[in-house]
Amino acid sequence: MIHRMLTAALALGLSVLAAPAQAFPDKPVRIVVPFSPGGGTDILARQVAEALARAENWNVVVENRPGGNGAVALGAVARAPADGHQFVLALRENLVISPLLNGASGSEMFDPLKDFTAIVHVADAPMVVAARPDSEYGTMRQALDAAKARPGALRFGTSGQGSMSHLLLALLGKDAGARMTHVPYKGSNPALTDLVGGHVELVGGSIASAKSFIDSGRVRPLAVSSLERAAALPDVPSIAELGYPGFDVVTWYGFFGPAGMPRDVVDRINQATVRVLQSPELQRILKEQGMQTRIGSPAEFDRLFRDDYAGLAGQIGNLDMGPR
Prior knowledge:
The chain has helices at about 1-25, 40-55, 70-80, 90-100, 140-150, 165-175, 190-195, 205-215, 265-275, 280-290, 300-315, and strands at about 30-35, 60-65, 85-90, 115-130, 155-160, 180-185, 200-205, 220-225, 250-260, 290-295. By secondary structure, the protein is α/β, with parallel strands linked by helices. It folds into two domains: about 25-125 and about 250-315, Bordetella uptake gene, domain 1 (D-Maltodextrin-Binding Protein, domain 2, 3-Layer(aba) Sandwich); about 125-240, Periplasmic binding protein-like II (D-Maltodextrin-Binding Protein, domain 2, 3-Layer(aba) Sandwich), CATH 3.40.190. Strands 1, 2, 3, 4, 5, 6, 7, 8, 9 and 10 form a ten-stranded mixed sheet that branches. Helix 2 (about 40-55) links the parallel strand 1 (about 30-35) and strand 2 (about 60-65). The radius of gyration is 22 Å and the shape is globular.
């Protein structure tokens, strides 16, 4: 009898320990987006959220928390309970580039290397450089030649200080020997709107953000920042094609939760996300937005993030990216 009681108690204890993984999620899953609605990151988050809700029967909520080029959203998730019910769709610019520009400690609101759990690599995406349809710069080469002839005369709008489009501008200026005036905005949409209005000559931003402006003819794409042409804009040359071999500026997107998340919960979110990312329909939708889905383990994504951080830490100091 004692043996049976001990066996039953042990079984009960094991079931209690296993409960968090079995129960997850036991409340709405919140995906925090570090930008306003309508941009490329928001579009990606909502597509994946809808796919997770359908495939996993989860109650998934997308919450936009713009500010500080992602620092507000990342800081909030860093302080959230590490139970897996809240994570952020972060990207290269707000978890690597912007923290490096703000100093060795990363950010006052979070430490990028200590405060997060890498969950899953979601997608990669290049940038696109666009001008107005009536611009005197019909090609990227013409714009660069003008920038070299008249340093600082061309105004280049980006989605913010420390953004991927800002890194694109800095690397383009370095490789082409062209100096353009940086005009930072609070997101790609405001920058593209000001491009249409004639307040800047060029804008760099995600293809997803620029796609509606391009499709409607309000802006003209001049070049993409990936090594090869983007499937979403097959007629637009890459910057590498224009005489800058090896030029490749691509951002990555991925889910990060607070530090200390249970491994079984991390694996559950990773596996569910990988399953929906393998859906041909979701791959088609994201491809049309200039994104390429990625799959892999949490450990692989963590290694990519940390290697990228270390690699860019050695480059940022040599680039003209304004005050730090």
